[in-house]
Specification:
The chain is built from 16 helices and 20 strands. It has 490 residues and is an alpha/beta fold. The chain is globular. Bound molecules: nicotinamide-adenine-dinucleotide.
Length: 490
Amino acid sequence: LQSNIAAAETYLEHWRDSGVQNHIAGRSVPASGGETFENTTPVDMSRLCDVARGKASDIDIAALAATQAFDTWRDVTGKDRRDILHAIADGIEDRAEEIALLESLDTGQAIRFMSKAAIRGAENFRFYADKAIEARDGKSIHAPGQMNVTSRFPLGPVGVITPWNTPFMLSTWKIAPALAAGCTVVHKPAELSPITAKILVEIAELAGLPTGVWNTVNGFGEEVGKALCEHPLIRAIAFVGESATGSAIMAQGAATLKRLHLELGGKNPVIVFEDADLERAAEAAIFMIYSLNGERCTSSSRLLVQASVYDDLTARIAKKAAAIKVGHPLDPDTVIGPLISQGHQAKVMSFFDTARAEGATIATGGERVGQTGCYVAPTLFTDANNDMAIARQEIFGPVLTAIPFKDEADALRMANDTDYGLAAYLWTNDLTRSLRMTQRLETGMIWVNSENKRHLPTPFGGVKASGIGRDGGDWSFDFYMETRNVSFAT
Ligand code: NAD
């Protein structure tokens, strides 16, 4: 822990001095008007650095820079785009330790997970680097006396708006395919964790990305985020964040007919039948709700368990959860660090009172940890039902609600009885049951007998209030590109 703190302090010195500036047309620039806001760490609420508080006029400048850069970037060959994206991945790997340490301090996420997230960021760039050459390919479609040929073209300058929970990894996941497609980018990082987004754009330019192709404007969602969505030069918005913000973005983008990709919240069920491997299911459920502080869109926040094994499974989970280490995010043993902010800590803890009032039992946790910092204990609620607030609202913390079900129909009804539809986790060794269930579950992704194991070529995204659109594989190119058909007559 001490050596990690010392290393993080060394990296922080630079940001304490320079602050996190905007990055437009290849230059670090203050916000117009020079306003800043303070960025603190949820470890103890101490100051990390100041951050440029961008304004709508900064979005104007960045959108213009992205538009001008698009003129040349659109025609850079697939091979050259591939080489630049690989060079960005190299740059991320070279600075992975710095990124992980700063991300941990900025977000409160444990270093054991942030080290992997930094490397995953590099993988995202490599994955889309290798797809860059074929991004524009289409197909030929024949008709009598006619041959049709399709090809894809980059949309133009696009806006990317990201949340605070795993900001570095999510930024790479949204921006790498945009660059591979030939789009230029204006990125609006989350105001609560902006440091690594600035490192990322600097790495990209050092790796050879032409200036103006990627611009970063910091600030608040209601100011710069809104201005980005409304900007006439910006052709699309790729957004990751809360469902309510997704609705606001749709409204803000309506006047300019923005193409939107929305990756939003979740209340994802993990459904455990009595024939499942209970030990594996318990370990997976624990990983999916207590890793990354439970601040994870695909977290398994509702545990639906067949009544016959409910006591057994919840007892196993309560015992394991109580043993999870909560502590300083830079401690290599820590699993749960502080939540992102005092406001979010208060929101998560408000569910403890609501749950008690609604009659749920706290099997473990249900309290804050320590007096400074935004720590809460890993929490398991039992004796819950699917109508309680803890089963319906996205808590976005290390809080699991266990609900018993009678049979398959009961499990399916409860799993789908939610506003959300991002992911579901199904535990059963009955193949025909898993086929029936996967056809009826209303979610974009289902993992059967597994936690969330991301395979980059597969589609990622949700239905209902969890979002619109898919990332991953070629799906990201469908969003960032336009398809054109040319028809030749004989
Ligand atoms: P948020 O919606 O509050 O903020 C996300 C981003 O949107 C921030 O950069 C914010 O400044 C910006 N923003 C806020 N208001 C805006 C507006 N009116 N116009 C434009 N931009 C605006 O979300 P958050 O609290 O930062 O992140 C947590 C949420 O993100 C959770 O709901 C979580 O489930 C979701 N999330 C979803 C996925 C996914 O892939 N589905 C992944 C990670 C997080």
